[in-house]
Amino acid sequence: MNETLPPCPQCAGAYTYEMGALLVCPECAHEWSPATAGAEEATNAGRVVKDAVGNVLSDGDTVTVVKTLKVKGSPNGIKAGTKVRGIRLITDGVDGHDIDCKVDGFGAMQLKSSVVKKA
What pLDDT is stored for residue 80 in this prediction? Predict the structure, then answer.
């Protein structure tokens, strides 16, 4: 068994395993083909995403939210200074959102790179 399996492209979980020809994440139940994962990285390789102060972001970085964000369905939003670990850059985000991540206390969501700073 290959001990260097890539993290889940959906949730960045490290506990992926092989099931036949697919890779599976036990944390979010995402299944993907290893060939598809390589193609995703190739499409993201040509694109440069910068944070609010101009630092280049990459998959797996830790970022800090620079301003308080309102979240639908939550009485209080994400406060400035909240650290977000293990981000994933995406190309098909809605309304300019280009970071996919998990925020503690809120769960999975998408953020804009203009509201985060590389930690």
Answer: 95
